[in-house]
Amino acid sequence: MPKTRHSHCGHVFVYRIFHFYFWRYGKWVEVVVDDRLPTIDGKLCYMKSQENNEFWSALLEKAYAKMYGCYENLEGGTTAEALEDFTGGLTEFFDLRKVAKTTVLSQMVRGMQMGSLFACSIDADANIKELQLSNGLICGHAYSLTSLHTVKNLKGKQVPLLRLRNPWGNSREWRGAWSDGSSEWRTIDEQTKEDLGIEFAQDGEFWMTFDDFYRNFTQMEVCNLSAAVMDEIAEMTGVDVKASQTYVWKETSTDGEWSTAKGTAGGCTNNPHSFYNNPQYATYFTVPDTSLEKDGKCTVIVAVMQKYRRELKSLGKDSLPIGFAVYACDGVKYTMHPRFFVQTTPVCRSGAFINVRQVTARFRVPPGDYVTVPSTYDPNCDAEFLLRIYSNTRLMTKLLEKDPDY
To answer: Is tRNA-binding one of the keywords UniProt gives this record (predicted)?
Structure first.
């Protein structure tokens, strides 16, 4: 809707306002901005589109910066954070140098079936920003992975192909096998190419084999969308993003805090006399009837996200090193005692404690009762957090109360 503003000199300025929605720590929030964009010498300072009369990306960036306080607070973000803020999904990180090729491929196949979003990158060069390799790929640069297909060549061999996109949308693309116009495309029939929607253009989009992907890329991020998130997106956009999905994630989430004043900032398991003071969450899983694995186990993803650290960056407060541990238990009514954590080995940990916004871990366990304990590395560190649990089955989560007899 157009608005007017009168200046002190008597001039009348007409401007428009735009509404954006972002997912912020478990809730969708509306951000409203006008169409005044930062420029230098008449040119946009930050994000811009190739078309001179297209401004949606710059307006989106302005709204995103407003949500976090300023443009400066967008510096140093990650693809995972942006994916979650734009979709409300839960993002997992895979170090492709440490994950088996078969595991990566199976995660891709399952993720595509469940409507997950994929991003990937190559380690940045320490000396040259966004170094372009001889094969056309760029180091320290995020690519989107948009499709996975297995094609049969004229010799009858099955070839898994991935479609990727450089968001710059230009000619800086992959130059290896199955790149635009390469000889490999002559080994499949025209109908297959038509089914894949093959168009060779300098638009940043290209194809490559899964083997070449695994050989060249070093990180992959997968943003999983739960049924609840898909329903909310459909309500806002009118597009039923869940309709084409064979399987969907079920989600539970809850807010929490580590508070020295409340005695809930116990630190990690290196502090056995205080670890049990951290918030403890009981979760119960059942075996899904539609499980693909048919092994009687549940697939679970746990994520702990610390809140407001990016907003506090300007005050010199960085993210805290955080993590979590998950324990199997035989029924649970109150918080577990210190002896339980000393004597019991976790069924899953989040890994090394690192100062990032969110830590995640995926694991498979039999149905039953489990206790999840989020913590900071050091005790007496105050912060708020969001605990989210995704599963392929029905689940229930609740914050446990202290045992009144302990």
So the answer is: no
